[in-house]
């Protein structure tokens, strides 16, 4: 995971403000944080939303299959954009969850089935509170671990860190270097300008190509969900 301070320091080196091993003074670092957040806000306004991946865990309630997640939700945390992976931990053993689509979840005819180890997780991000649905309904207060993507709107402090998807950190550093240069009355090297444009273009293209990768169950049978056959 990379902190805001790491990104700002790298951007400063790209335009020759500092050399390896040197550090910005506190005022310069604070200005860099302000510029970084302004840039991220501008990208968000243009529809280029940045996501970080994070692992979290929550305690399940026996007899409860549906949970809200988000600020003031059953699981009180930042609302995920999507859940990528998950598992149930019972004592010291982890049992993987299959992330299923809305269609797959609806194919389950008997949703009252219970188990101490649920097997499927369906996630609906909705707007303010996301909704997690488990099958089977948990019968024990085990721990649910989820790896999710959450939107990054800003860095709260220089020490704030995020685990960014591939390519994002590179693009942020080079484009931030361009944004910081006027503060130091520095001309941006041509190579940095080119790399900033290329890396930002790749991010925009990647986001544009992304489609729903929901698992389609062969034959539309509940049996195929349970057995993957």
Model description:
- The chain has 229 residues and is an alpha/beta fold.
- It has two domains: 2-49 and 158-209, P22 tail accessory factor (Gp4) (Hypothetical protein yqbg, Orthogonal Bundle), CATH 1.10.3230; 53-150, no CATH class.
- The chain contains six helices and 13 strands.
- It has helices spanning 4-14, 26-45, 102-107, 168-184, 190-209, 222-227; strands at residues 2-3, 50-59, 66-70, 75-76, 82-90, 93-96, 98-100, 114-115, 120-124, 130-135, 137-138, 143-152, 161-162.
- The chain has a five-stranded mixed β-sheet with strand order 4-3-10-9-7. Strands 2-12-5-6 form a four-stranded antiparallel β-sheet, covered by helices on one side.
- Strand 5 and strand 6 form a beta hairpin.
- Helix 1 (4-14) packs across helix 4 (168-184), helix 2 (26-45) packs across helix 4 and helix 4 (168-184) runs antiparallel to helix 5.
- The longest helix has 20 residues, at 26-45.
- The protein is elongated and about 65 Å long.
- It starts with a strand and ends with a helix.
- Residues 211-225 have low confidence and may be disordered.
- Which quaternary structure do these chains form? single chain
Q: Would you count the extended β strands for me?
A: 13
Strand content: 25-35%
Categorize the overall geometry.
elongated
Low-confidence stretches: 211-225
Count of distinct structural domains: 2
Please trace the helix and strand order, writing H or E for each element: EHHEEEEEEHEEEEEEHHH
Strand arrangement across the biggest beta sheet: 4-3-10-9-7
Q: What is the CATH level 1 assignment of the largest domain?
A: Mainly Alpha
């Amino acid at each position: 995971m990379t902190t805001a301070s790491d990104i700002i320091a790298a951007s400063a080196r790209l335009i020759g403000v500092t050399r390896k091993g040197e550090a910005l003074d506190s005022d310069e670092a604070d200005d860099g944080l302000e510029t970084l957040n302004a840039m991220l806000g501008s990208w968000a306004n243009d529809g280029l939303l940045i996501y970080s991946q994070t692992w979290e865990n929550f305690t399940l309630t026996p007899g409860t299959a549906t949970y809200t997640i988000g600020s003031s939700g059953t699981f009180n945390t930042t609302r995920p954009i999507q859940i990528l992976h998950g598992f149930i931990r019972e004592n010291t053993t982890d049992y993987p969850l299959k992330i299923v689509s809305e269609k797959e979840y609806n194919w389950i005819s008997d949703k009252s089935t219970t188990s101490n180890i649920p097997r499927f997780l369906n996630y609906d991000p909705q707007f303010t509170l996301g909704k997690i649905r488990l099958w089977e309904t948990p019968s024990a207060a085990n721990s649910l671990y989820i790896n999710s993507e959450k939107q990054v709107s800003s860095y709260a402090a220089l020490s704030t860190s995020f685990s960014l998807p591939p390519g994002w950190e590179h693009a942020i550093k080079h484009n931030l270097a361009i944004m910081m240069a006027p503060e130091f009355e520095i001309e941006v090297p041509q190579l940095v300008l080119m790399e900033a444009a290329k890396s930002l273009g790749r991010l925009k293209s990647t986001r544009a190509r992304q489609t729903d990768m929901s698992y389609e169950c062969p034959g539309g049978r509940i049996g195929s969900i349970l057995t993957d056959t």
